[in-house]
Amino acid sequence: VTNVAELIHCAHALVGGRERRDYAFAVRDATIADAGDFAVVRARYNDVPVRAFPEDRLIIPGFINGHSHAYQILLRGWADDRSFERWRDNALYRVIPRLTADDVYWVFVVAFSEMLAAGITSVVEFFYLNGSGNAHAEAAIRASEDTGIRLVLARACMDAPTAPEAFRETASDAAEHTRELRLRHPNVQICIAPHSLHGASEAMLRTAAAFVEEEECDLHIHVAEAPYEAALSNERFGVSPVLALERFGVLSERAVAIHAIHLSEAEKDVLARRRVRVVTNPATNLYLGDGVTDVVGMRERGIAVGLGTDADLKPSILDEMRTAAYLQKLRNSNGAALDAGTAFLMGTKEGAAVAGVPAGDLATGMAADFIILDRREIDPWSPSINAVVYRAERSWVREAFVGGRKVYDGASSALEIEARKQAAIIAARLNF
Ligand SMILES: [Zn+2]
């Protein structure tokens, strides 16, 4: 039974949210083929090379970033401290439509490199620069391949007259282009992402819902990030946002609702009944003043909730786990509202289920996506999981592996250094 390439021996690991000593897993075809106590696993594969991580290292699953717009790193600094509308219309919509496919490549290399250095091994990119076809999306995919991050490309569809021309497609073009991209990249998870109730028409939403049925893929959509969406939905459709989406066939177990902040209790019940998954983006919601997702209420209803870095001000699921826990404690005036173990789960296993990637735990059958933390930073009396959620910094991340392959070794790659130079040139050219 040894087409196993390697055994990973961990003096310390977090598995299923629990501390394990002398844990090992076998990597075959980029997947964890076997796992358990080192002595037991070693006996089954005694001629396979061992990669050992000693006492001062903690091995944990790579983090799952459930929602990102990587090009928004170009907005950092100069577009800060605005209302959501002014941030969107005068910064986001002014800059992103002017990016060439080459620009997208370099900017995405920078963002993906930052994510890997922060321990993020999977990212769902909600990608909306598609108005001219797939050239820009191809550049984003190339950036994921060259950096080694696991990519889910949620190909956005927009046809609202308020959206920039460079983002807009007809519903049939959007479906056709998404289908083409899926055929060209069978190894990348590509799903469809009608932007939102305000960015996509009813026709676009219905087309996307039909696409999901035909292609058996996921659907990502922004839902109720800001209060105005409820007013808009009531005016246009006579019902609340979630009921409108339900009417258009968008809500199913294949749907992922991004944000889901300004919802009634009845709307949350509908999301639960339709088995919709949710991604919350705590740091971005704070930065833009959006509001706070009722994560506790969602999870009590059985809704799976993942975490996203959205505006990528500082793409770090370490930060998002911590912020999610703090916000829920504050929202509920209860320090027990969301604990470290739950936050960690949202950043790993539950987040992976939401993103639809077979990762998030160091268990048999999972992708071999894992990161190596400096365990010397953890107080000897502290459970590791609490240290990771409440205290960990990006500097604790020493290495990252995706599919068993090392994609981050603690330093910037030559590609990342070049990409940062290019990003500075792009920023100067765009002349914010
Ligand atoms: Zn978003």
* Percent of sequence in beta strands: 15-25%
Give every kind of bound small molecule, once each.
zinc ion
Helix content range of the residues, please? Answer: 25-40%
Tally the helices: 16
Task: Please give the structural blueprint.
Elements lengths: L5 E10 L2 E11 L2 E7 H7 L5 E4 L3 E5 L1 E6 L15 H12 L5 H17 L2 E8 L7 H13 L2 E8 L13 H14 L4 E6 L7 H14 L3 E5 L4 H10 L3 H7 L7 E5 L5 H9 L3 E4 L1 H6 L7 H6 L4 E3 L9 H15 L8 H8 L1 H7 L14 E5 L9 H8 L5 E6 L2 E4 L5 H17 L2
The structure holds zinc ion.
Describe the 3D structure.
By secondary structure, the chain is of the alpha/beta class. The protein has 16 helices and 16 strands. A four-stranded mixed beta sheet has the order 3-2-1-4. The structure holds zinc ion (ZN).
